[in-house]
Specification:
Oligomer: single chain
Number of strands: 9
Structural class: alpha+beta
CATH class of the largest domain: Alpha Beta
CATH architecture of the largest domain: 2-Layer Sandwich
Strand content: 15-25%
Low-confidence stretches: 45-49
Mean pLDDT: 84
Largest sheet: 5 strands, antiparallel
CATH superfamily of the largest domain: PAS domain
CATH topology of the largest domain: Beta-Lactamase
Number of domains: 3
Helix content: 40-55%
Distance between the termini: 127 Å
């Protein structure tokens, strides 16, 4: 005959089952929490190890997260920045636009990429290549703004110096009273057969009588131009050694060239 469980035993078994269920639910919740904490620690270690500066903002652009690279770049530590408004902290300037326009674009499109000028803690102005991305909530509202930045100050300084140098070179190139040209040699095997004008100054055009030669081949300009010139220029191109010579270019109307 089946054994009949009395009411007291039934209540005890029910309580035991509930406690077991609670125990396993807690174990599952603890395991999920531990996994979440491990994932968070892993993500934090990645952000900390990044060489690029990373910081996260809330919807009001107040700083929530700040990695070590951001401290190295801007000077403020992670303990100094939480809750501070990023626009006020950095005193951001956006070349060719405004802070307001850049923020409006970010909030509207969800992304911003470009160069901005940021103030560091010591007052220096740093040129940064910045990428910003909006993280939205379930209803589409702005939840977080994640930013990365790379310092390009030195690169911009070098580009500026290069532009200045090129402008000085161009000014000298255009004003010098000697004819000057840069040509690209064209070979058939090791035999120089033609050359293309890459750069010429106004004086070169005046001395040679060749108008607008830039980009053109010498054989197209003067098909009968003596092989002597191609050979001499070819030797310079192949050896890298400078040469001085004085000769007449008959195909250019017996113009004498040194």
């Amino acid at each position: 005959m089946p054994h009949k469980v009395d009411e007291r035993a039934s209540r005890f078994l029910d309580l035991l089952a509930r406690q077991a269920a609670d125990y396993f639910e807690r174990r599952q919740a603890e395991a999920a929490l531990q996994e979440s904490e491990r994932a968070h620690a892993f993500q934090s270690s990645i952000l900390t190890a990044l060489r690029d500066s990373v910081w996260a903002l809330d919807a009001e652009l107040r700083i929530l997260y700040w990695n070590d690279a951001a401290t190295e770049l801007f000077g403020w530590t992670a303990d100094e920045v939480p809750g501070r408004n990023a626009r006020e902290l950095f005193n951001t300037l956006v070349p060719g636009s405004t802070r307001e326009a850049a923020v409006e674009q970010l909030m509207r499109t969800g992304d911003f990429r470009g160069e901005i000028l940021c103030r560091a803690k010591d007052g220096r102005t740093i040129v940064c290549n910045v990428t910003s991305h909006v993280v939205r909530g379930a209803a589409g509202e702005v939840s977080r703004v994640v930013n990365t930045a790379r310092d390009i100050t030195e690169r911009k300084r070098e580009e500026c110096a290069l532009r200045d140098s090129e402008e000085k070179y161009r000014s000298l190139f255009e004003r010098i009273d000697a004819g000057f040209c840069i040509v690209e040699m064209i070979f058939n095997g090791e035999t120089p057969v033609d050359y293309r004008f890459v750069e010429v100054n106004p004086t070169f055009e005046h001395h040679t009588g060749i108008l607008n030669p830039k980009g053109r081949l010498m054989r197209d300009i003067a098909p009968d131009h003596e092989q002597y010139w191609f050979d001499r220029y070819g030797q310079v191109a192949l050896t890298g050694r400078a040469q001085r010579f004085d000769a007449t270019a008959k195909a250019l109307g017996d113009r004498r060239t040194k």
